[in-house]
UniProtKB/TrEMBL annotation:
Protein's name in the database: Cell wall hydrolase
GO terms of molecular function: hydrolase activity
Pfam families: Hydrolase_2
Organism in which the protein naturally occurs: Pelagicoccus enzymogenes
Gene3D superfamilies associated with the record: Cell wall hydrolase SleB, domain 1
Record-annotated Cell wall hydrolase SleB domain positions: 44-156
Span of the signal peptide: 1-21
Taxonomic placement: Bacteria, Pseudomonadati, Verrucomicrobiota, Opitutia, Puniceicoccales
Domain of life: Bacteria
Alphabetical UniProt keywords: Hydrolase, Signal
Length: 159
């Protein structure tokens, strides 16, 4: 075999590995996203946490480099409001990460975050980019299409 052929094959095999490595969050971002899943939906089970992760992906347009910005946006996730309105620095999220990391679902939430970044997470919300408790109908949901109900949450897709 020619050396150029071997190099080509090797580079094609390694190329996806390099792409995935760029999309991975740092350890702190991974924990902040997992905390969001726990605090928003741990009581909704694994499907509920996966749904919150899908909403994060849908709000980012599928761009993994924007996942953390979506989570840190003020008022985007009510369980994080105390931190997102204070600031976006590491220190403001530390109490939330500390509290969430004690939850029994912590390792599952971290696995869901990993699946989100690797592109392996399926969208059980059917493209939803918002959600609320199903016993509420917030004013921001008017004009949006309801996509599914998971646990106590009703999911919506923006027009």
């Amino acid at each position: 075999m020619k050396p150029t052929f071997l190099l080509t094959v090797l580079s094609l095999c390694l190329f996806p590995v390099f792409l995935r490595a760029e999309a991975l969050p740092d350890a702190w971002e991974r924990q902040v996203l997992a905390a969001c899943l726990i605090l928003e939906a741990a009581d909704q089970g694994e499907a509920g946490m996966q749904a919150v992760a899908a909403v994060i992906r849908n709000r980012s347009g599928g761009d993994a480099s924007k996942f953390i910005a979506v989570v840190k946006k003020p008022y985007a996730f009510s369980a994080l409001n105390a931190s997102t309105v204070k600031g976006k620095d590491k220190q403001s999220f530390a109490p939330l990460v500390s509290r969430a990391s004690k939850d029994i679902n912590w390792s599952k939430a971290l696995s869901i975050v990993d699946a989100l970044y690797s592109g392996e997470l399926s969208d059980n919300t059917f493209g939803a980019d918002h959600y609320s408790r199903k016993d509420e109908l917030p004013s921001w949901s008017h004009g949006m299409r309801a996509t599914t109900v998971i646990g106590d949450h009703l999911f919506f897709k923006s027009p």
